[in-house]
């Protein structure tokens, strides 16, 4: 269809993330049922089983859960880094005018939840959980908008995606600064040196997938051992991937024409099997295509489906299995605090700051978006599943009672926010949009 051909990368992104959100819901339900079934022991045993490898002088064994949270989530963060870089260079965040509207929403959705957590929380042992309600789960949020179909304008989906990406970027910084362990300076310096080499190559327009994989694995391991969370390595590696290579369009087209002419003028072209010349020219075509294509866009395209349809659902399956009927004493105050931060903090923070910025003429809101759209999507932004659970697992890694309490708060808060936001937007479906004054 013509509509599919003219969709921007960000609009295609929303389609992928919408279905990913549905898989995320399914994985979450399965995890909850499994963890609370007669087979709950197998759920715990599976994710705690140690997996790894060893050879002379080196050994690396970790529970399967940590391989998911440290390695698979590093790939997830790598793709987030690619998306952030693309959006800032050529996408929906590449100008000040495009950036300000979602930036204001993101700031409101981050600041008030943190303030509420600090004010409401009275337990010093749970104070580290202040970052849990900061981020929005893009996949879940867009899945909800997908259920509404054409009842919500594309401008609202783009706004939600853009400010969720900004949220993720802020969450990455928070993890790096506040949720990492004691830093081993020597290992971190070596990792930074390797990253500097990749950045220099990217600056020169030089790109090698083999070099990226080998150096990336080394950087990931060094971050793991340095005390900084290895998922940060994923984002920093993504920023080293160049948008374009040194081959320009004119050179590429000239080479394509030469290859085409050589194939057309081949005297053996009537033979049903490829001739030696044709095989050579096809190899040349593949080489030139590899040299010309955008490394950043190519990697994002290749990895996005793996992240959306495999890594995120596996993360949910491994982390969402909270045992509801447990002997561990849950912290009801923490549960309520997180619910309030996600439902009230997100909605009021986003809505109030956007309307204030609009009054002060700092931002321009698209005409297709009205007041109810803003209020509805601000509640949907309270769906903080993936990143919220991830931050909770870092904040309360050694306190299972607080981690389980945080997960329950995230699940209830996210579900409540989703339902409120959905019904607000659904009730707005038949109303003619009025620009926000």
Automatic annotation (TrEMBL):
Localization annotation: Cell inner membrane; Cell membrane
GO biological process terms, semicolon-separated: regulation of pH
Main location: membrane
Membrane topology note: Multi-pass membrane protein
GO cellular component: plasma membrane
Keywords: Antiport, Cell membrane, Ion transport, Membrane, Sodium, Sodium transport, Transmembrane, Transmembrane helix, Transport
Catalytic activity: Na(+)(in) + 2 H(+)(out) = Na(+)(out) + 2 H(+)(in)
Transmembrane segments: 21-40, 60-80, 100-120, 158-179, 185-203, 210-228, 306-326, 333-357, 377-396, 408-425
GO molecular function, one term: sodium:proton antiporter activity
Role noted for this protein: Na(+)/H(+) antiporter that extrudes sodium in exchange for external protons.
Family: Belongs to the NhaA Na(+)/H(+) (TC 2.A.33) antiporter family.
Protein name: Na(+)/H(+) antiporter NhaA
Gene: nhaA
């Amino acid at each position: 269809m013509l509509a599919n051909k003219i969709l921007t990368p960000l609009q295609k992104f929303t389609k992928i993330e919408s279905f990913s959100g549905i898989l995320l819901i399914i994985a979450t339900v399965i995890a909850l049922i499994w963890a609370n079934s007669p087979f709950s022991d197998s759920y715990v045993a599976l994710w705690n089983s140690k997996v790894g490898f060893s050879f002379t002088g080196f050994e690396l064994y970790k529970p399967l859960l940590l391989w998911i949270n440290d390695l698979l989530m590093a790939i997830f963060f790598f793709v987030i880094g690619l998306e952030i870089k693309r959006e800032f260079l050529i996408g929906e965040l590449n100008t000040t005018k495009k950036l300000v509207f979602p930036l204001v929403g993101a700031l409101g959705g981050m600041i008030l939840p943190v303030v509420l957590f600090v004010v409401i929380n009275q337990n010093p042992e749970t104070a580290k959980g202040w970052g849990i309600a900061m981020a929005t789960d893009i996949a879940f949020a867009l899945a909800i908008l997908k259920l509404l179909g054409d009842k919500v304008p594309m401008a609202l989906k783009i706004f939600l995606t853009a400010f969720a990406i900004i949220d993720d970027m802020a969450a990455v910084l928070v993890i790096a600064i506040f949720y990492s362990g004691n830093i081993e300076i020597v290992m971190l310096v070596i990792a930074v040196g390797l990253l500097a080499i990749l950045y220099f190559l990217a600056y020169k327009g030089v790109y090698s997938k083999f070099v990226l994989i080998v150096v990336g694995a080394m950087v990931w391991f060094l971050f793991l051992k340095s005390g900084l969370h290895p998922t940060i390595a994923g984002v920093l590696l993504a920023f080293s991937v160049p948008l374009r290579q040194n081959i320009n369009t004119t050179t590429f087209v000239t080479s394509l024409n030469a290859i085409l002419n050589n194939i057309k003028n081949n005297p053996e072209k009537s033979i049903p099997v490829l001739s030696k010349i044709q095989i050579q020219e096809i190899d040349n075509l593949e080489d030139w295509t590899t040299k010309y294509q955008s490394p950043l866009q190519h990697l994002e395209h290749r990895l996005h489906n793996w992240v959306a349809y495999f890594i995120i659902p596996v993360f949910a399956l491994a982390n969402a299995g909270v045992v509801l009927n447990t002997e561990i004493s849950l912290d009801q105050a923490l549960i309520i605090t997180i619910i309030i931060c996600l439902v009230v903090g997100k909605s009021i923070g986003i809505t109030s700051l956007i309307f204030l910025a609009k009054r002060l003429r700092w931002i321009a809101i698209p005409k297709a978006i009205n007041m109810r759209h803003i209020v509805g999507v601000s509640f949907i932004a309270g769906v903080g599943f993936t990143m919220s659970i991830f931050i909770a697992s870092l904040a309360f890694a050694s306190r299972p009672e607080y981690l389980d309490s945080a997960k329950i708060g995230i699940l209830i808060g996210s579900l409540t926010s989703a339902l409120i936001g959905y019904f607000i937007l659904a009730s707005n479906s038949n109303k003619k949009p009025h620009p926000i004054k």
